Amino acid sequence: MSLLSQIRKVVKGLFFGPASIPEYCTLGLRDPQSEVGVWFHGLGAARDVTYSSVVACIRPFTIGIGFEGDCDPPVSNRSRYFLRFHERGGEARLLGEIGLRLKEAIPAGDGRLYLFETRDYNNYCLPRNLLWRRYLHYAYQRWRRSKPSGFRVVARELHALFVFYICPRPVVLVSVVDGHLGNIFPMDLIGPVGAECFTLALQTTSAAVPLMERSRRIALGSVPAEQVAVAYELGKNHRKPCVDWDRLPFATTASSAFGLPVPHFSLRVREMQIENVRNMGSHKLFICRAIEDQRWADGLQLFFMHGFYHAWRERRAPL
């Protein structure tokens, strides 16, 4: 490396902060993850919604939370709701929080799915000065790779999304077939919102959307951590209307209920019946009913998380 390149690297580090803190990263964890807890505040005692809170849309950034029973949050701009993200175990440190505004509630299985837009946010994973330097770098990177057809997320909502991804999110491969057409692609905007209710948020421009809307049947194969390269490679299928199953770089097995082709390496296979599709903005929200849930193997699952939490996690790792 030349002297000029070294100087540029030092200056860039001083201005943007360490490049070792990426915007997002992956990690292998047991499913369900037990590192971070998500708590809903604003209705009496705090409620643990770690496994019932999902991303419903990116623009506008909308969070879905499933509630069952007699929970009925009032719809009012004066009502203050929060999500708080805590370390599980240890000192239960507060890692971040998102202020919420209730938008609407819709039926979901035996309960209701409450959709919240974001008011504000706080991220405590890194010192504030370093946070904003990294925000600036991420914004610069997005500007360089932006496409005219893409959607832009306002900074406040994007930074709230970073907080949401303090809680690691599992990655699955979604299989869908309609007649002679089929596709398989990775997703992480997914999650349960009730005992038998599950949601997926898929960008409206994804070529897989029409397949899912017509078929109404999908299978989700949990991705082992060691298959991270395969998951990234299949990301290109979001731009394809269909795939050639015989040319995939892995063997597939038919799912038990719908007979959909799912990766043979799947740790867990869940089959879903799509019952409702809502246009949320940049994404369509698929509200599903779980039909079958099988564990095929044991191992670490691939999770997606924000780099801020990963940096905090690395600092807290035992020597």
Provide the descriptors you would attach to this structure in a database record.
Pnp Oxidase, Chain A, seven-stranded antiparallel β-sheet, 40% strand, single chain, 6 helices, alpha+beta, 2 domains, 319 residues
Structure write-up:
There is one protein chain. With 319 residues, this protein is of the alpha+beta class. It has two domains: 35-167, Pnp Oxidase, Chain A, CATH 2.30.110; 169-304, Electron Transport, Fmn-binding Protein, Chain A (Pnp Oxidase, Chain A). Helices cover 21% and strands 40% of the residues. The protein has six helices and 19 strands. Strands 3-2-6-7-8-5-4 form a seven-stranded antiparallel β-sheet. A hairpin with a 2-residue loop joins strand 10 (172-178) and strand 11. The chain is globular, with a radius of gyration of 20 Å. It starts with a helix and ends with a helix.
Uncertain residue ranges? none
Mean pLDDT: 90
Task: Give helix % range.
Answer: 10-25%
User: How many structural domains can be distinguished in the coordinates?
Assistant: 2
Strand order of the largest sheet: 3-2-6-7-8-5-4
Percentage of residues in DSSP E strands: 35-45%
Shape: globular
Number-wise, the strands total 19
| CATH architecture heading of the largest domain | Roll
User: How would a textbook summarize the main sheet?
Assistant: 7 strands, antiparallel
Number of H/I helices: 6
Using only C-alpha atoms, the radius of gyration works out to 20 Å
The SS-based structural class is: alpha+beta
The helix/strand order is HEEEEEEEEHHEEEEEHEHEEEEEH
